Amino acid sequence: MSHLDSSQRTLSGSTRRGFLAASGAAGGVLALAACGGKSGGGSGGSDELVGVGNNGMAGKGRSGDAADQLFIAGFQWSPPTNFNTFAGAPAWPASGNVAQYVYETLLRYDIVSGDLKPGLAAKYEVDGTSSITLTLQDGITWHDGTEFTTDDVLYTFELGKIDESLGVASFWVEVDEMTADGSTISIAVNKDRKNVGMVLATLAQQFIVPKAVFEKAAKETGNKLASWETKECMGTGPYTLEKADQTQIILARNEKYWGKDFYGGLPAPTKVIHPIFKSNEDGNLKFQNGELDVMQQFIPQISKMWDSGKPVGTYLQEEPYFVAGSMPMFLINTTKDGLKDPEVRRAMAYAVDYASIAETAMSGYSPDVVASLILPEGAESEWIDKDKAKADGWSYDPKKAEQILTDAGYAKGSDGIYAKDGVKLGPWKLITPQGWTDWNAALEIVAKSFTAVGISAATNFPQQAQVTTSIQNGDFDLACWYVAGANPATPWQRFSDVMSNVELADLGKTAYRNYGRWENDEVNDLLEAAAAAADDDTKKKALTALDDLFRKEVPAFPLMYRPDEFFEFNASNWSNWPTEKNDYAPPMFRGAGNEWIFKIQKIGG
Amino acid sequence: MSAPNAPLTDEKAAPRSNPFRSINLSTRFWVALVLVAFVVVLGMAGWVYPTGPGEKVGSLYDPPGNGLLFGTDNFGHDVVSVLMAGTRTSLIIGLVAGIVATTIGVAIGLISGFVGGWLEELLMGVTNVVLAIPSIIVLILISISLPQSTIWSLAIVIGITSWPWTARAVRAQASSVATREHIDVARLSGSRLPSILLRDVLPYILSYTVMAFVLQVSGAILAEAALSMLGLGPSGANSLGTQLHWALAFQAVASGAWWAFLPPTIILTLVSFGFLLLQASLDEVFNPRLRRGKRRQMKQAAARRAADARALAASRSEQDDDAQDPEGAAVPAAGRGIQEGGVA
Fold this sequence. Notes:
The complex is a heterodimer of chains A (605) and B (344).
Chain A: H1 2-12, H2 16-35, E1 69-73, E2 107-109, E3 116-118, E4 121-127, E5 131-136, H3 150-162, H4 171-174, E6 175-181, E7 184-189, H5 196-205, H6 211-220, E8 239-244, E9 248-253, E10 271-275, H7 280-288, E11 294-295, H8 303-307, E12 312-314, E13 324-326, E14 329-332, H9 342-351, H10 354-361, H11 386-392, H12 398-407, E15 411-412, E16 418-420, E17 423-424, E18 428-431, H13 437-453, E19 457-460, H14 464-472, E20 478-481, H15 492-499, H16 523-532, H17 536-553, E21 556-558, E22 562-563, E23 568-570, E24 574-575, H18 596-599, E25 601-602
Parallel strand pairs in A: 1-10, 1-11, 18-19, 18-20
Antiparallel strand pairs in A: 2-3, 4-5, 5-7, 6-7, 8-9, 9-10, 11-23, 12-23, 13-22, 14-20, 14-21, 15-16, 16-17, 24-25
Chain B: H1 8-13, H2 19-23, H3 27-45, H4 79-115, H5 117-132, H6 135-145, H7 151-161, H8 164-177, H9 181-188, H10 193-229, H11 240-249, H12 258-286, H13 295-316, H14 320-343
């Protein structure tokens, strides 16, 4: 076991090569340990571990310093250069809406229950659609020991006014005024928009930063906060940034963390170490060998890992293993001839082989697709009318797709492609960024499905920047793109992303929602009503009305579901991971996903 | 054909009067032919194979078994069927690109080599500039800018980026042919430039052209694989490169799905190895000096020549020193052949 001790020393060293060599040695030992490890269910008695691999296995634990450290991956892919949370691409854990290890948010979103849990704010109250009141926790301190006050909160959001290019600026679209009184903060929701959901979503996502530090930064940069560069990040969280170099980011436990009582103690790991890998494969291999404890990288066929005796686990024991949190959307440019026709769009929705996509492209990680813009599982499930979605919605049925086209007056030409009045259905290009492999594969299946029913389509995968511009400018035929993932503002935000006619951008101009330029007279009123709904019944009715319109007009349709974050753990060193049976915390890193780090248990000595 | 002043014995004794014995194809020609034929047959077999390459027969990376020789790929398609379709696509791209590249290269090489002067300077200047740019970069740039990537567009793009070395080599040969007497004869007889190029120059460098074509085909197949692995392959079509692309994208190596990436890799290796070997052995066919049959065969041929010569000498009943002459002429020739064969 001396290997591990030496490997740990090297790990704190600086060379990548040394790290890889040492971790290779550690991997060998861990693999052996995993084979002869304790079994979660079998050993019985007080020794029984919960929250272990899906095969019931657990490892024996690492020895030495590494036994108390948590190895995490999937959030940082390049050498960390800038820890300014407002920069274009800040390094983990300063990047926006990631695990709350250094910075924290006022409220924390739970992707399983859909609840907003207290964070820096001990409680929040919503008064209809007019205002939100937050009360801060007691005794919060910054890492340097100074007191955390309402000034810090106000200033964080104020930055959106100081520099309007920052993401936080969009907060002020929905909010008129934010004031503090003692430890209470009152937020006046914009009277015209009345969109409480969007305000809560921002409160649950925006890291609160120290006013003292950022005031200085604003002065230094002439209020161009995004251009400020820093190697430090001081927050309120349970960890401090200890070291960051090209191979890893190391966080050290903040022994004076304010939340000791609130979370029932300090986090279990003394350090959180994020090694930086060049590719998914590197990380996946290390994860399989137990050199990483938890990560959010895409692993095809993760079940093979526990089938081969590794103590690897996921929140759900059975397929789809992950809790659905986002909805890759099939966007349709409704300004193009042919695609203008809702019947064509409906036929398309019937033509796609969703089961194939879920099974192969998504590696089985997607539940069955429902004809709705509301996620059928998890946080949003209370809002969906599943019976209606089933009755009025679509499913994979190529015959029906052809029937719809024939009924709408389309006829197959000699080339096997449907056409009407000289408007041929295709050839259309299906675009999505190169390297987004599951989406690439999904579109390949869509292209084949379309060709099979007589719609001409072929895939094309340019670079991400090019796809982003094409989609925003409406310069595309068909595309796979993302819309809002589960958050306190969804499903409303997703309806807005897909259907909103507010500030509808012309072709060639940058749009931020409704990329397909679908036009409709009713939708804005319906969206407004849903956003301003005062109680749950009204809200559900309004959302169902939107969903009905969505099913009738098919401005876009979901191809599959994806977890918001992949949550995969290897119980080689730590147990008591959150699972469906051990559901004290949601399977996520951001938001309420910070809870499990206080509760995981070291297996070995 | 013999020189008028050669002794009669030479003509009769020459083993090259027998065409079958003289072609003397080496083992590596046959190996190359078998390899290339195997790959071509594999490509053709897709037409009779029961499952299509787009048919979903299983799940993500089903291992071999259940009647599937190489299991399924990441789409759940039969790997064997995809491999057949992929081989066919790769061969088509290779052939088309090879034809395009060889045509451009030979045309530019012929004209600049034969015509010479400023035209040669101009054409070779362009060729050298194109040669100096790494073709893979040009290939990637053109492929990215194409609105739609099909196997035909890809083949043509590969073809128009890989002609320069052929042009240079053909120019060198053409300018050498241009100084020969029969060209003057052709000129005097009133032939025009295209006719001279096609009838009097091209035939002399045809053997080289065929070999260059074979190399171009193999190069194009590899170029297609490289492009497709980067994700710039033909959309909606299977090729060996796209097969590798998806295997990489779905981490076949990490998840141990060897059946998804080994078959296309092996076929690619066989294709390029087979074509290179074919090119090398064709070289021997066209250039007798490079021929290297078995040493024993060459020795036998030498011995046969010697024996023939002796028999002839004996039948003539001439004096000893006269009889040595033909033998002395034949043996060194054979000896040179052996030497070269041994060295090459």
